[in-house]
Each structure stands twice: as C-alpha cells, then as structure tokens.
Design goal:
With 198 residues, the chain is an all-alpha fold. 67% of the residues lie in helices and 0% in strands.
Length: 198
C-alpha cells in the first residue's frame, strides 16, 4: 500500500516536471501574452502596439507564419516590413506557398524601399534567391545610408546563397560612409566564410 502511494506520488511529480520542462506541453507566450493576443495587436489603433506585435510574432516560431502572412496585406508599410522580415527570419516551409511568394513578389514593387528590401529578403530565405538578391544588391547603392546598411544586413543574414551580391558588396565595402562600409564588409565575411570552409 505504501509502495503504491510512493509510486503514485512519484509519477505525479514526474508528470509535473515533464510539463514544466517540455515546451510542447507548456502554453507558449512571449512577455506574458499568447500568439492570438499579439496577433490581435496587428489591428490596434496604436502604431506602437502594431509594430511591437509585428516584431514579437516571429518569437513564436512556425506558429507565427499565418499572422505574419496576413500582416503582409496591412496598410502600414512598417508592419509589412517587419512581417516580411519575420517571415524571412523564420524561413519556414509553411510560408513557401505560391500565394505567399506571389504577395512577396508584388511587394518588390512597393513604393517604400524598406518594404521592397524586406520582401526581397523573405523571398531569398524562402528559396527564390534570384528574385531577391538583385533587389538587395541594388539597395546597397541607395543614397541613404540606413537603406544601404539594411540591404547589407539582409544579405549578411542570407549568407552564402547571396553570393551573386558579392560584386556589389565589394563596391559598397569601399563606400565613403563608415556604416555602409562596415555593413558591407560584415555581409562579405558571412557570405565568403562558408565558401572558404568548404
């Protein structure tokens, strides 16, 4: 009888510990909020809340793909920028559908340069290297250093698949602006390091 109670208590404790240790068993939240709560904030009146949601959603991993894809249709270009960037960071196979790729390709013609760059980054990470690398390489020549640095950062995050951008990055690495030069050199380092390791 006592041994049965000990076994029962041990099993209960073990099950409790597994629930705590196993991420699949625990409710996933970021900053104390669920995926659905963060997703709902994409429609908030407050731009700060919308942007915070778009930036936070990728923390949920593959579960965030659907709300991020929906955010690609948002009226606020900054939300679209962060949604595309998040999809690129996740590079999850569930985002690599014809519908998502078509929307990202359409965003390559967006009036906002940042949206074009993040859409290009997402396309490259989802396997459409040719479509995106050219847009990112062109971004390196933009007169505003923030845009050129963003393009270089996206290329660095892509790594070796962005090898076609190496000539443009070498030009940008000689840029007068220290920030552009540094971002281009970092991208070159990340793209070429993998090639040298092989």
């Amino acid at each position: 009888m006592l041994s049965q109670k000990i076994v029962a208590v041990s099993v209960a404790l073990l099950a409790g510990l597994l629930a705590i240790e196993c991420p699949a068993a625990a409710q996933k939240s970021v900053a104390g909020r669920s995926l659905s709560e963060w997703s709902a904030d994409l429609a908030a009146k407050s731009r700060t809340r919308r942007l915070r949601a778009a930036l936070t959603l990728p923390s949920f991993g593959a579960d965030a793909v659907k709300p991020l894809v929906r955010a690609l249709q948002h009226d606020d270009p900054a939300v679209v920028y962060w949604a595309a960037s998040g999809l690129g960071d996740l590079a999850h196979k569930s985002a690599a559908t014809k519908r998502v790729r078509k929307r990202l390709q359409a965003l390559l013609g967006h009036k906002t340069i940042g949206v074009r760059l993040s859409a290009a980054y997402a396309l490259v990470r989802l396997g459409e290297t040719e479509a995106g690398v050219g847009v990112l390489a062109k971004g390196l020549t933009h007169p505003h250093r923030g845009v050129a640095c963003t393009a270089a950062d996206f290329l660095a995050r892509v790594g070796p698949p962005a090898a076609d951008a190496v000539p443009a990055l070498r030009v940008a690495a000689r840029h007068m602006d220290y920030h552009v030069k540094g971002a281009a050199n970092e991208a070159l380092k990340r793209i070429l390091a993998a090639k040298e390791d092989k």
